[in-house]
Amino acid sequence: MILGLAALAGIGAAAAVLLPEKTSAPDRIVAPASAAKGTSSRSAESHFAALPSREGLSKQRGDPFGVRSAPARRAAAPATPEAPPVPTAPPMPYRVAGQLVHDGVPQVVLARDGRVMIVREGEILDGGYLVESIRPNGVTLVYTELDIRETLPFSSVLPSPRAFAAAPAANEQRAAAARPARLRWEGPEQVQAGSNFNVALKITSNQLVRGSPVQLSFDAKLLEPVAVRAGDFFADGSFTYRVNPGGSIFVGAFGKGAVAADAEFLVVTFKPIRSGSVAELKISSMVLQGAAGSAVVHEPVAAFRTSITQ
Length: 310
Fold this sequence. Notes:
The protein is α+β, with helices and mostly antiparallel strands and 310 residues long. It has four helices and 17 strands. Among the domains are: 95-156, SH3 type barrels, CATH 2.30.30.830; 179-309, Immunoglobulin-like. The strands form four sheets. Strands 8, 9, 10, 11, 12, 13, 14 and 17 form an eight-stranded mixed beta sheet that branches. The protein has a four-stranded antiparallel beta sheet with strand order 4-5-6-7, with no helix packed on it. The termini are far apart.
């Protein structure tokens, strides 16, 4: 028994000598304490010195896992309604063709679409216009539908006979450049009371004549106007007139424009009233209009005279 135990012990000792010692793989190689300490210190210092400096992390803003709500939309500004267009009057259809003064009352000759008319303050015109006022500087027309006023200046029209007579050297040079137009009356030298007769105003001009506003004067006690008509010179033009029972006739005659050779400008029919007298007809105001609105100079016009017999 004792011998058997001893034998087992010897076999176990021999096995321990013959079998290699069990070792485990090291997790890391550890340098000697003194060497490792110096080496790791220098290596760490050089390693971190080469790295760029880094700022600290900023403070967390909000919950990264929270539900974000969409930003509130701004309410759209209400659309501003467009202002309605301001009403305006139509283009002015009238233009000033001349000026007249009768018994101290100013009147204006207006032209529209080839027609002429003599108007005074307060008159209603075609197209809804009212002649509001006539002043030395122009005539004011009112578009009554919108109460819009427009003044047509006289500066753009022909000068009055007085202004032309007193015109400076510019008008004298213009008169010298072309021979003045000539006007004359043609009618009977003697008429019988109660019997109508005609008097024609004739014109001769080497310049183009387009028309003219004319004011005629007569003695209403001796002559009674029966009719007024355009002469052959304005057969295709525009002709208007107005008879004042006090002894005047306003005429507006305008055409396309032509050179006149003893052509009829206008014709007036009178009825003699009282015998034993000499009746007279004369031009109290007249401005001839040529091309492009220029004034045509004319010689003074002698009055027409006729004797009225029984």
